[in-house]
Amino acid sequence: MGIRERLSGNEAAAYAMKQINPDVVAAFPITPSTEIPQYFSMYVDNGEVDTEFVPVESEHSAMSACIGAEAAGARAMTATSANGLSLMWEMIYIASSLRLPIVLSLVNRAVSGPLNIHNDHSDAMGVRDAGWIMLFSENNQEAYDNILMAHRIAEHKDVQLPLMVCQDGFITSHSIENIELEDTDKVKAFVGTYKPEHYLLNADEPMAVGPLDLQAFLFEHKKQQAEAMRNAKRVVKEVSEDFERTFGRHYEFFERYYMDDAELVVVAMNSTAGTAKAAINELRSQGIRAGLIKVRMFRPFPAEEIAEALKNASAIAVLDKSDSLNGCGGALYEDVVSAMFTSNIHVPTVNYVYGIGGRDTTTDHIKTVFTDLRMIADTKDIGNPYRYLGLREE
Amino acid sequence: MSNLIEIRWHGRGGQGAKTASLLLADAAFNTGKYIQGFPEYGPERMGAPITAYNRISDEPITIHSNIYDPDYVVVVDDTLLDAVDVTAGLKESGAIIINTTQDAEFLKSKLNGYNGAIYKIDARKISVETLGKYFPNTPMLAAVVKVSQIMSDEAFLEDMIGSFKHKFAKKPEVIDGNMAALRMALEQVEKVN
After folding, report:
1. In sequence order, what are the residues at sequence separation of 6 or more whose Cβ sits closer than 8 angstroms to the Cβ of residue A244?
2. How far is A274 from chain B (nearest CA, A)?
3. Which of A165, A343, A380, B53 is the most buried (most CB within 10 A)?
4. How many CB atoms neighbour CB A120 within 10 A?
């Protein structure tokens, strides 16, 4: 059993970083992730960590400093949200292509514009093809646990990719909830020491990082990145299993909630998955066979496994907290239907864009989705596959 | 989750409603409960209406939305009665607790026909007497504990002295006043309907 505590999601993320005590943290504050570097700088000031804290002047510099630190052979972490991530954009791709296992806490917020500080997943979805491992967290506990696992996954010799741990801005980042923390010595033993194979400060192996890479090699390097991302799947599984052996909490690529006999299934990520669980508990008490797939590992996407988990459903709704504005469905929906099609599984599946800009999503909203799924399952007619949930004047 | 208690706080920016909701979450946590304490963030200005929430349960809480059908509503500033629909969704089996000096008839006239229990407390008077300043959140915190019976008065006071010792480590002189405010509020919160 861990240590019973109550923390906000931001406090949980900062506490995990304190326990990990990375070599370098470089960050620039932005709502709603501001508290993470704020708390962390307090730990630096108090001497609770011996991290080199770099209070940079922008997020572009935050990611650049992390890249420099990792390339030098150090373990680096940062945190940001929304437009902060947008400003990192250039360096996000450079971090992954240089195979630098930086760990980023992304506290999800709507990307401007117009200006909005509240939660949706448009920031994360903007970097879904950037070569970062992406783990999503339903609550403070999962944000904490995912960060404790992050370095082991990212730094693994078969992976060497940066990793971001997502949680919902305000909804979990600013909500005080119960959490089980782990003993710092045990955390340090679990996370281990970073021992990079190649690094700039190794005087015995002079090397260049990030030189020109043209027609002759870039293609092969991208293939290696893709291969590393595929390897990450195995490593996420191994590290999650070791995490469970060490700390007792169970994690897979995705969580199955009442899926054994589920007929009507919702697929969602982050805090809304918890709200969906509450809705499903009510529906189950009425005899409705409702279930949930909560995607934890969005990159790499566990395509075969999700398709397999959904194959016995009668109707499926994929909830996207970001609108891809492409006329054909959100990012999670595209991945889920593509995974099913590729596995030759054909279940009526619709998409709901919801919660944009912090629009609140309630159990009643989720229940209306299951009502729609009942009708789709009964009539075999999906109607409009591209729907909205919680939109006014629908 | 039949044992789930949901509380909505209405205050004005600067009155400490958010802090009170976090202190309530803390106190309930310390008696072994599962808790949530979270504000609804909007434009942050002194004096603007703000809302904060608590969920308290014997079982883990997974729901992550605002609260629309609360068991209890706490109104930290009675001028909000004209500005905000404070009884929206409030269960009639629950109660509303208002910081006010107004009488029952006046309060009823402001509550859109709400038929549940109405409690009032003069948090200003308590605060000024015990702290010398107007900090309504401390008395309101005690009032909601008393009315909702989330925990016993004794367990609450014992927990709060610990919290205040921690919170006011750098100005211990205010601890006694805050504890006096809590005790006075536990005694003075009054059912008027």
Report:
1. A250, A251
2. 5
3. A165
4. 27
In this prediction, residue B1 has a pLDDT band, given cuts at 50, 70 and 90, of very low
Residue of B nearest to A138 (CA): B62
Q: What is the pLDDT of residue B12?
A: 93
Final residue of a structural domain among A247, A273, A289: A247
Domain boundary among A247, A263, A283: A247
With respect to residue A366, please indicate whether it lies within any of the assigned structural domains. Answer: yes
Task: State whether residue A168 sits within 8 Å of chain B by CB.
Answer: yes
Identify all chain A residues contacting B26, using CB atoms and an 8 Å cutoff: 6, 176
Q: For residue A278, is it within any domain?
A: yes
Report yes or no on whether pTM surpasses 0.90.
yes
Written as six digits, the tokens of B103 are 């009488």
- Residues in a beta bridge with A351: A318, A386
Question: Which whole number is the average pLDDT over B37-61?
Answer: 90
Contact B67, B74 (CB under 8 A): no
- ipTM of the complex in this document: 0.95
Rounded-to-integer distance, Cα A284 and Cα A300, Å: 32
User: Band of the pLDDT at A163, cuts 50, 70, 90?
Assistant: very high
Q: Is a pLDDT exceeding 80 seen at residue A1? A: no
Residues A265 and A334 in one domain: yes
Q: Is the pLDDT of residue A54 over 70?
A: yes
Task: Name beta bridge partners: B190.
Answer: B120
For B96, left (φ over 0), alpha (ψ -120 to 50), or beta? beta
Tens-digit pLDDT profile for residues A118-138: 999 999 999 999 999 999 999
Residue with tokens 């932005």, as numbered in its chain: A30
Q: Are residues A352 and A241 in the same domain?
A: no
Q: Which domain holds residue A350?
A: 254-389
**SS3 category, B139:** helix
Q: Do A272 and B60 touch (CB under 8 A)?
A: no
Distance, CA of A134 to CA of A106 (rounded, Å): 10
Instruction: Inform me whether the pLDDT recorded for A394 exceeds 70.
Output: no
User: The dihedral of CA B15, B19, B25, B29: what is its sign?
Assistant: negative
* Domain positions in chain B: 5-191
A80-108: pLDDT as tens digits = 999 999 999 999 999 999 999 999 999 99
Within this chain, do residues A338 and A211 fall inside the same structural domain, yes or no? Answer: no
CATH number of B5-191: 3.40.920.10
Say whether residue A137 is in contact with chain B using an 8 A CB cutoff: no
As a whole number of angstroms, the distance between CA A21 and CA A47 comes to 11
Kindly state whether residues A233 and A304 are assigned to the same domain. no
Quick check: B66 pLDDT over 50? Answer: yes
Q: How far is A34 from chain B (nearest CA, A)?
A: 14
